[in-house]
Design brief:
The protein has 83 residues and is an all-alpha fold. Helix content is 63%, strand content 0%.
């Protein structure tokens, strides 16, 4: 999972252990895939919280891109491009 989403790692905040929410999400997913037991409630909640943090960060990036697009659309066209 980390390999597939490594492009968003620089966008995520790092905790005191040097890990991002993507690391915690990846750990929960790998544990769920490979373990012969179900996740504990604490493990599940950590993975769910990490997923929500990732979703929030991606949504913030999307909003920022939309705002930037709106600014560019509202900006006057340079005269050299109009002629």
């Amino acid at each position: 999972m980390l390999h597939h989403f490594r492009f968003i790692l620089p966008l995520l905040p790092v905790d005191e252990d040097g890990l991002t929410s993507l690391h915690y999400y990846d750990s929960a997913i790998q544990l769920a895939r490979t373990s012969d037991r179900e996740l504990t409630e604490a493990e599940y909640l950590i993975g769910l919280q990490a997923a929500n943090e990732i979703r929030g960060m991606l949504n913030e990036c999307r909003i920022e891109m939309l705002e930037e697009s709106a600014v560019r659309l509202a900006a006057p066209v340079p005269q050299r491009l109009v002629q």
